[in-house]
Description:
Blueprint lengths: L4 E3 L2 E3 L3 H4 L5 E3 L2 E3 L12 E3 L2 E3 L12 E3 L1 E4 L18 E4 L17 E3 L17 E3 L44 H4 L8
Parallel strand pairs: 1-3, 2-4, 3-5, 4-6, 5-7, 6-8, 8-9, 9-10, 10-11
Amino acid sequence: MSNIFIDDKDYKGIDFSLDGFTKGNYENCGFINCNFSGTDLSDLSFDECKFENCNFSNVKISNTAFKNVKFKNCKLLGLNFDECNRFLLSFSFVSCQLNLSSFYKLPLKKTSFINCNIQEVDFTESDLTGSTFDNCEMAGAIFENTILIKVDFRTSFNFSIDPEINKLQKAKFSTNGIAGLLGKYDILIE
């Protein structure tokens, strides 16, 4: 990673897809109403940063470090989070669009997804222990060999999770969500 270090700086309304993005380590920075669409953010580090109302569609994040990063009202379509730097990886998502993204094999313990659109997102072989999916649309999300211990799905909907190929100890579901656990059996629940 680059030696440039930027801390405690706010960026507002910048179109980085046109202006480019300075490679470096960003700590405690805020990004509001910024467009990163199609930008290469590979090999950067974001530590304690906040992104609000930003567009990250089709951004390259190979070896990018996200350490305690918060995304709010962001568009994160088609991101390969599985290519991120896994060291101290930690983020949360509030009211974000994450459709078609991948978290394949990532350690995502205690990650919060609140009011998010998580359609067709790949969580295969991820460790989501203690995570929360609060009021999330999850149609087509993929859970295979995923660790879902103590995960809270009670308010989320349209998920399909096969209990036979995922680890579900003490995971929480609402009565309405039970259909998402039994889908492969082709039974009717009324």
